């Protein structure tokens, strides 16, 4: 269990008391005012709990804890207050920024019990998040693999977008990147209802009939209906609903939802233009120039990722029987009759290799081209 605690108080005698009474049970860090508390919190990182006095110069405890919660939603906060600060402290509790409120002076045994309760609460929050993260990632992996066989165009896109969005999210250190994983796949989920006869026209944004256009217009609503039936995916729905809202009209509230929507918007549109055959660097330059539509921080990270990818993969042509896990398709994998099995950019995994073997077993001669263009990870020197 994480027992890292930050204690903030402007009275030196109180800080000495914390040090004396708490250092045996907790990993203790101290700060003498709200501003310093914020600096220590952001510099040292990884705190499970923050204990703060209410009345301090420059920045009171409630304000500091509110700012800290914007940085880390999971950290548990405890507020020490005198009778004169009671109304302000109650307001902080009601706003959800404070786990417990204690009156000063507080007996050491009471304080220790509350801090241990707070650490248990933090452990519960993080355990639930980890379980949700792992469960949803596993479910999304299974869903994406299954649907990539049924609708390889759209779920090939989901796989590529998911990969790019996750890499951007990791570099930007946004919270709860599992939401990007799920949103990337769900952004394509409703396309499974598109008739196969028009799938490629829809995918490549070719001329469509009025009936098909109406179907496309209803897809976001269809996706939201699916998400609404799954508990715990409310923020995924928010991310998808914000895709067409320009980032300049909203600021992130600390949850990471607005930033996640900006990341997914860039990843989706980058993939669309790349699949149309446009040069990667030109796409990034174009996205970066449209600062009202695309967050410059996100497009800047995308540009960095392209440089890393160029140095991490090489293009190769290999016989179909020598495809291996870890390679990535650099062209569509189709049968001799043109039927699409996997789209360009798809990661070659055990599921795809099994699909290839299954097709091979149903034909006298292999229905696949003899060789495929793939990108191969460069081995670290």
- Arithmetic mean pLDDT: 87
Q: Low-confidence segments, ≥5 residues, pLDDT <50? A: none
Shape: elongated
Radius of gyration: 26 Å
Beta-strand percentage range: 5-15%
Kindly describe this structure.
- It is built from 14 helices and ten strands.
- It has 381 residues and is of the alpha/beta class.
- It has two domains: 4-124, 3-Layer(aba) Sandwich (Rossmann fold); 151-377, Hypothetical protein af1432, CATH 1.10.3210.
- The protein has a five-stranded parallel β-sheet with strand order 2-1-3-4-5, with helices on both faces.
List the helices and strands and how they pair.
Elements: E1 4-8, H1 12-22, E2 27-31, H2 34-44, E3 49-53, H3 61-71, E4 76-81, H4 86-94, E5 100-103, H5 108-150, H6 152-172, H7 178-189, H8 199-203, H9 210-228, H10 234-241, H11 257-275, H12 280-289, H13 296-312, E6 313-319, E7 328-329, E8 333-334, E9 340-342, H14 350-361, E10 371-377
Parallel strand pairs: 1-2, 1-3, 3-4, 4-5
Antiparallel strand pairs: 6-10, 7-10, 8-9
Helix pairs in contact: 2-3, 5-6, 5-7, 6-7, 6-11, 6-13, 7-10, 7-11, 9-10, 10-11, 11-12, 12-13
